[in-house]
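Subject: for your reference before the review

Hello V.,

The reviewers asked for a structural picture of the protein, and I figured it would be easier to keep everything in one thread rather than splitting it across files. Below is the amino acid sequence we used in the manuscript, unchanged from the supplementary table.
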Amino acid sequence: MTQDDFQKLKDLVSRALELPAAERENFVRQNCPNEALQREALSLLTHDGEAFTRAVQDRFSDAAQDVIGGQDTTDTESHGPNIPNYQLQEILGSGGMGVVYRAVQTGALERTVALKLIRPGWDSERILARFNFERKALARMEHQNIARVLEAGTTAKGEPWFAMEFVDGQPINRWCDKQDADLAQRLDLFAGICRGVQHAHQKGVIHRDLKPSNILITNTEGGSVPKIIDFGIAKALGEAVAEGPLLTLEGQLVGTPEYMSPERIAGHDEDLDIRSDVYSLGVLLYELLSGRLPFDRSSLRRTGTQQDDLHTDPPRPSTRVSQVSEHSREKTDEIARHPGTDVRGLQHQLKGDLDWILLKA
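And here is what came back from the structure prediction:
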């Protein structure tokens, strides 16, 4: 793939993602006469959610290697760019615009950090603005339940990066299942998450992507602590905080549909306020307490179109736990686990305040 083809493919996919899912194929066919690039773009756009992110990363990484083949790469090691005072060790995760490495900060202050870099080739004005907004938003926060920014800078090529607190933990749902956490433990962890989200809101930032994989549980001397990570698609509440252009990606379903508020799915991001995060918190707690999501949004993942559940309430959590299959019942028994509590006991605990709070959220 030539450098020109690589750029065309990147621009085509980026522009298509700004449209509703139902319009993307027609857009690609109308704006790309090259059939080979059409097939590449359409192949990428058929993936859902995280599978799409991985496909884009893999394909554009391969394409970028084709483009830079033979060029001088003396400032780039096999595991990532050379950043003074940091040794990159392994990739922890990646999103649509950045890659997060486990790294060791060297020198007088030696510590393990999570270092986030712009993905090579994804340095458009829009992506740079969002990356810098995430860095600035995190820098404004100082809370035990939010991973904090430690340092920021640019590579020799001018690519921005920032180092964050390294959170050695597991997603909250996986941690709870492995630890056989009972109802009280789950509620205690969730209260910490709420305090962190409230702090972000007080700093004028809506997270917009609250889900289990963005809430890690880490064990400290003082006990287990939830940490909120990845403010990559966060939105400012006020213009004073929203420095830089194009901080939202209008028309693009950015995030995880299962945890999105109805106004996010409907594309009304310009009207978002903190209630959107409250909705996502409600979905998260519903799943943690009942063992199931309130709605099945698999069709939304496939088509990107709205569906009936945007206008209806889910079953009460206390009712949902009595409707589970035998396989799911085993998981619900684990959630209820503490002396004398089974699914029926969990139902009793959920009735009343917890049912009301979850449906209100």
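For the response letter, the relevant points are probably these. The chain has 14 helices and twelve strands. The chain has a mean pLDDT of 77.

Happy to draft the paragraph if you're swamped.

O.
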